[in-house]
UniProtKB/TrEMBL annotation:
Pathway: Amino-acid biosynthesis; L-methionine biosynthesis via salvage pathway; S-methyl-5-thio-alpha-D-ribose 1-phosphate from S-methyl-5'-thioadenosine (hydrolase route): step 1/2
Protein name: adenosylhomocysteine nucleosidase
UniProt keyword list: Amino-acid biosynthesis, Glycosidase, Hydrolase, Methionine biosynthesis
Source lineage: Bacteria, Bacillati, Bacillota, Clostridia, Eubacteriales
Molecular-function GO terms, alphabetical: adenosylhomocysteine nucleosidase activity
Domain Nucleoside phosphorylase: 25-250
Top-level enzyme category: hydrolase
Length: 253
């Protein structure tokens, strides 16, 4: 997951925090070590900072100052990590990269899904009349990616015609979704393209802090169409594909 702080470039509304932070800093969060190891190898002038039992790597990546961190799996880990990046490292925008399961039937292992909207599929207060996925008393149902970052990510995919890319909704929950019935239910209820365990919580943190974000996920499997790949075989492919898109985004900034 990545965070970018140039509010002038991104066209964000200004705030007292961003006014004091003129340095363009990119924070990168991966849920698992495998999702960041390639990026960490490419980082220069790296310094480690320990906070809340997490290791944050400050350095230079592809010509940009960055902060990279492995958050751990799940919504709470991801949200807590994102807030530390915002509050203590003063990042002002966020991009998440990682692995997800496919939901739409036309999505296969190795494909990329760029999220345009994000919902927490395991939030359910429908007994009070809320739509499933609606966070109670939140003024929005889904969290929308920043338009400029979203367009940058889409443009970056054009540099990699060998990687099939999709744009659509990513849903998150503290559940590992592996059954056809559950994936079909998620597709019906949320019209989702991909499902995983972190993105929508990071999106909520970004929304609450009024910072732009976008999330890019590599697809490992799809229970909706029966497409699977051995995890050990997939991880190098997934990391390679999402890293390639991210690097092209950096080059276009």
């Amino acid at each position: 997951m990545i965070l970018i702080t140039s509010t002038t470039f991104l066209g964000c509304s200004s705030s007292s925090k961003s006014a004091t932070n003129t340095k363009e800093t990119i924070g990168i969060i991966g849920a698992m070590n495998e999702e960041l190891e390639v990026l960490l190898k490419d980082m220069k002038d790296t310094k480690e900072v320990k906070k809340n039992d997490l290791t944050f790597y400050e350095g230079n990546l592809w010509g940009k100052p960055v902060v990279a961190v492995v958050s751990g799996v799940g919504k709470v880990n991801a949200a807590s990590c994102a807030q530390i990046l915002v509050s203590e490292f003063k990042v002002n925008s966020l991009i998440n990269i990682g692995v997800a399961g496919g939901v739409s039937k036309d999505i296969y292992p190795g494909d990329i899904v760029i999220g345009d909207t994000y919902v927490q599929h395991d939030v359910d207060t429908s007994v009070f009349g809320d739509k499933v996925g609606q966070i109670p008393r939140m003024d929005v149902y889904d969290f929308k990616a920043d338009e400029k970052l979203l367009n940058l990510a889409i443009e970056a995919t054009k540099d990699h015609t060998d990687i099939k890319s999709h744009v659509g909704r990513i849903v998150s929950g503290d559940q590992f979704i592996a059954s056809h019935d559950k994936v079909a239910e998620i597709e019906k209820n949320f019209n989702a393209s991909a499902v995983e365990m972190e993105s929508a919580s990071i999106a909520q943190v970004a929304y609450l802090n009024n910072i732009p974000f976008v999330i890019i996920r590599s697809i490992s499997d799809n229970a909706n169409n029966g497409a699977t790949m051995d995890y050990k075989e997939f991880i190098p492919i997934g990391v390679k594909n999402s890293t390639a898109i991210l690097k092209s985004m950096f080059e276009k900034m």
